[in-house]
Amino acid sequence: MSTPIAWPVRALSFVLYYLWQLIxxxxxxxxxxxxxxxxxxxGITRLPLRCRTxxxxxxLANLISLTxxxxxxxxxxxxxxxxxxxxYAAEIDAFRESLYDMEERMLRGMRRSGEVGPVPDLxxxxxxxxxxx
Length: 133
Known about the structure:
The chain is globular, with a radius of gyration of 16 Å. The protein contains 3 helices and 4 strands, in the order αβαββαβ. The N and C termini lie far apart (40 Å). It has one domain. It has a 4-stranded antiparallel β-sheet with strand order 2-3-1-4, covered by helices on one side. A hairpin with a 2-residue loop joins strand 2 (70-77) and strand 3 (80-86). By secondary structure, the chain is of the alpha+beta class. The chain crosses the membrane at residues 15-34.
């Protein structure tokens, strides 16, 4: 059960979390641009979603694309899923986990009940340019 104050607090918490992610992502990408060498290990993953509405799907897809180093490549609402490119996705499971963390925080902030549900099952189908899993 959610108290009347819990939902606005969760929404504000998500806004602060996302602003922090923007700052950190900008620093990481900016640092990689101005220093020699590169830490880029790009990858693409399919992300089945817990989002239920078009608004939730659109919001998550746009938040991902606004974050430096990530880009939503494809959006589907039936079933709800995204294909996401990451500049720093050497560990594809960790990359996917960070995306699910963002989705969970966003949904807790958007939904009055705060209920999100479990992460959908995902068969191991991700692509790396290097041919990794």
